[in-house]
Amino acid sequence: MSASHPQATAGPHRVLILGAGYAGMAAATQLAARTRRADVQVTVVNARERFTERLRLHMAATGQQFAELDIPELLAVTGAQFVRGWVTAVDAQAKTVRVDDSRELRYDTLVYALGSVTDTAAVPGAEDHAYTLDGPSGAPALADRLARLGGGTVVVVGSGLTGVEAAAEIADRHPGLDVTLVGRQDPGAAMNTKARAYLRAALTRLGVRVLSGAPVTAVLPDGVVLAGAETVAADVVLWTAGTRAAPLAAAAGLTVDERGRVVTDTTLRSVSHPDVYAIGDTAAIRQGYGVLHGTCQSGMPTGVHAAVSIARTLRGRRPKPFRFGYYHTPVSLGRNDAVVQFTRPDDSPRRGCLTGRTAVWYKETVSASPWPTYRRMSRLPASGAFWPRGGRFTRVRDAR
Ligand SMILES: Cc1cc2nc3c(=O)[nH]c(=O)nc-3n(C[C@H](O)[C@H](O)[C@H](O)COP(=O)(O)OP(=O)(O)OC[C@H]3O[C@@H](n4cnc5c(N)ncnc54)[C@H](O)[C@@H]3O)c2cc1C
Fold first, then answer.
1. Which atom of ligand 1 is found nearest the CA of 279?
2. How far is the CA of 230 from the centre of ligand 1 (A)?
3. For position 90, what pLDDT does the model report?
4. Which end of the chain is less congested by CB atoms within 10 angstroms, N or C?
């Protein structure tokens, strides 16, 4: 097991952040703002220079284009170094990370923020025959296929919110296609009656056929097989059901859960390797009401908290426990409709929800807000960021 506090090194303390998604960028920008450059050297490794707006991947899957958000450009303001490359291994004993199998980076503190991918290993055939929204190639490849399709059937597997958003977007942008949404649960199952009914009516209006209570057991080149052996024919299958973390953490000997996520203590440090912080989708972070499920909503606060904790630890103080409460579930229903369910901190639905144009505006504001937030955080030294804690927005202080 590694030491729980940073080791004294001759030069600046080396913080290596793996992954520049929503959580990793929050950690990088907050850390740079909260520490002195002479004391701390922050390096961020990411597969590509362009920030992947995962919240918009269902839109990218229908060919919509977005502004280029350049990670090195933003990090230049902070003094953090950027390394473009694919992380291939972590050696948690030697405290090194291999990038592109050719380069080795050393760290004193590691921030593990590699996100998650769709779990296509869940059923036979999904890996080979289904599209996913993952990464920069998944959504554009699907967009290309849909654009060439002309007519036919698209089956979207997974009736969680990613599946709902994808099915609605495809039906909205490609009215000539038949879209079927297949999954175990009713779409919007976690919402209140009003929001759920609104969501279902919107899917009906868009012509999306819903098959719920129908787990998919296999994906074929031309359709999917349901439990009970019924098949649903499809020209294209999009798989959105379930996520898993990269196997790197488990291979490095970090304690992980059944989905490969790094199990953290209350302060977001790995329970087996306290010099590793795990944040965002790739971390299994327990709160009083259960383990956080992957959202940008919770991922960004985990990045801020890790940065605050590292800054505190470098000053010889103890990191504080992370506390988070959910506050909303915004769901787009094509380009002109949406529903927003407000939630209690444990993610159960409140009575309030937004629908229609107001919800569209709200959802767009949420989706667009991370990058301006990083800009703000990177420029304001030790800025207080506001995050929901226990349902109330509270200023995060690092208490120097
Ligand atoms: C279509 C869709 C809509 C969504 N809508 C919402 C929403 O409305 N609200 C919400 O809160 N959440 C939403 N989510 C979930 C949200 O996108 C994720 O929870 C969030 O992206 C997690 O952030 P992260 O930083 O942990 O991971 P990511 O954002 O996935 O970032 C991980 C980064 O690590 C990089 N990476 C991964 N492996 C490697 C490697 N080996 N080497 C180098 N780099 C690597 C990736 O390229 C990426 O840049 C949505 C997800 C999808 C797919």
1. 26
2. 33
3. 97
4. C
Task: Return the pLDDT at 224.
Answer: 97
pLDDT at res. 264? 98
Q: What is the DSSP string of 139-171?
A: HHHHHHHHHHH-SEEEEEE--SHHHHHHHHHHH
Residue 108: name the closest of 5, 36, 253, 254 by CA.
5
30, 43, 49, 55: residue to mutate for ligand 1 pocket, most atoms within 8 A of CB:
55
Superfamily of the domain at 13-116+245-324: FAD/NAD(P)-binding domain (3.50.50.60)
Alpha carbon of 197 to ligand 1 centroid (Å): 28
Q: Which fold has domain 126-239?
A: FAD/NAD(P)-binding domain (3.50.50)
Degrees, nearest 5: CA angle 256-112-98: 100
Any ligand 1 atom below 6 A from CB of 21 = yes
Ligand 1: nearest atom to the Cα of 136: 47
pLDDT for res 66: 85
Separation CA 323–CA 198 (nearest Å): 32
Distance between CA atoms of residues 168 and 182, nearest Å: 13
Predicted confidence at residue 32, as pLDDT, reads: 83
Nearest atom, ligand 1, residue 57 CA: 1
Tokens (6 digits) for 170: 């495809």
Q: Would you say the CB of residue 330 lies under 6 angstroms from ligand 1?
A: yes
pLDDT at position 399, please?
33
Q: Is 57 in the pocket of ligand 1 (CB under 6 A)?
A: yes
Q: Give pLDDT, residue 5.
A: 46
Rounded Cα gap, residues 379 and 304, in angstroms: 14
Cα separations in angstroms, 304 against 100, 154, 397: 28, 39, 10
Lookup: tokens for 157:
């597997």
Q: What is the pLDDT of residue 9?
A: 54
Q: Work out whether strand 216-220 and strand 223-226 pair parallel, antiparallel, or are unpaired.
A: antiparallel
**Stretches in the chain below the pLDDT threshold 50:** 1-8, 382-384, 390-400
Distance of CA 220 to the CA centre of its chain: 28
- Report which of 138, 134, 195, 131 is spatially closest to residue 157, judged by C-alpha positions: 131
Please state the φ and ψ torsions of residue 17, each to the nearest 5 degrees: -110, 120
What are the start and end residues of each CATH 3.50.50.60 domain in the chain? 13-116+245-324, 126-239
